[in-house]
Every structure is written in structure tokens, then in C-alpha cells.
Amino acid sequence: MKDNISKHRVHDTITNIFHCKISTLLPRPLLGTEISAGFPSPAQDYIEESLDLNQHLISHPSATYFVKVDGYFMVDAGIYPGDILIVDRAVEPTHKKVVIAIVDGELTVKRLYRKSEKWFLVPENSEFEPLEITRDINFHIWGIVIYSIHKMR
Known about the structure:
By secondary structure, the chain is mainly beta. It has a domain at 13-21 and 59-149: Umud Fragment, subunit A (Ribbon), CATH 2.10.109. Helix content is 3%, strand content 41%. It has 1 helix and 10 strands; from the N terminus they run βββαβββββββ. The strands form 2 sheets. The protein has an 8-stranded antiparallel β-sheet with strand order 1-4-5-10-6-7-8-9, with no helix packed on it. The chain has a two-stranded antiparallel sheet with strand order 2-3. A hairpin with an 8-residue loop joins β8 and β9 (131-132). It is globular, with a radius of gyration of 18 Å. The two termini are 13 Å apart.
């Protein structure tokens, strides 16, 4: 974790938003068997078909966006600075979904959580506190995070 993280910062920053463009096709070979974490085997023998990630990852193309994350609020959920999130605005926000929310005019990524008739935006990093959604907060769910894309660390 970086030393310059402030506990007083309320939101992760969404640095970029990109609309989903599904007209680009890039089918790649898909192995016909699951890969074991054990002993290696020659993968070429198992290629069965091609997989287009647009078809696999995107259910609602006109409502799907990509956003880039800056911040450490969701590292325990596997979301890191520089990750690209696939966000579907057609999916219904429900308890425990990871959401992109607008809070007082700023975009943030948090887990939506309901407890005793109250709603919270919960970071997944113990260094930060949940934010209760009250009438005093200008709040809106912008979309639901469906996938996170990041380079393996």
C-alpha cells in the first residue's frame, strides 16, 4: 500500500470513461478444457473454437462503458489503480453489487450495501470508512461493475 493514502479522502477517482465499441472483432482461440494449476500440458491439442471478448463480456452494448480507476478503496475486491472496469448501466443496483456512483458530483467505485433499511457505499479496504447514503448527500447510481480488467501483479 502506498504511504500517501489519506483516510480523509472520500472517493476513488474515475479518471476516464469510454463508451463500449463492439464493432471491433478480435476472436482468439479458446481452449476446450479448463486449465489445471498443476502439471503443464500442450494447449494446442485442446483448441476447440474462437472467443470474442465483446460477446463474452458485454450483455448490453449500448449501456456498457469502460472506466479507469485511480485509488486504493477497492483493493480487497481486486480493483486496483489503473484497472479498467466494465460497467453496465442496464443492470439493476442491488445489495452487495459493486457500483459506480455519483456522490456530490464525483464518480466513485464502491460496494452497495444495505443494512437495517439503510444504504451504504462501502470501500473494500479497511483503511477507509463506509459512507451512509442520507438525504443530505447528492447521490445517484451510474452503473454496475460487471468485470475488472487488470494486469497481473
